[in-house]
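Q: Okay, next protein. This is MoxR-vWA-beta-propeller ternary system domain-containing protein from Chromobacterium violaceum. I've checked the sequence twice, so it should be correct. Can you predict the 3D structure?
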Amino acid sequence: MTENLSLGSEIRQPVLSGRAWLSGLWLPADRYGESERRLRILANWHAGAAAYRFPEGDLLRYAAPMEQDCERLPGWPLQKLAAPCAQRG
């Protein structure tokens, strides 16, 4: 059986505001062109960061959370909400 679930994947604007501890930036492809996304990632790159490209947009993951003003970001703010589950042996 195949199910096609949509769990709110069409986010139209970020929900964080004010200052927050962020783990990265999301740059949606429907809002920024490829060249613009590349420039924004490079301008916000820090040692240890990682960048990922998806059909829906690009993700810049910081090496460690950083406190930032969400309204002044060059993309959508991302927070890490939970740690991964520990492996059971």
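A: Here is a summary of the prediction. The first helix runs from residue 34 to 43. Residues 26-78 form one domain.
Q: Noted. On to the next one.
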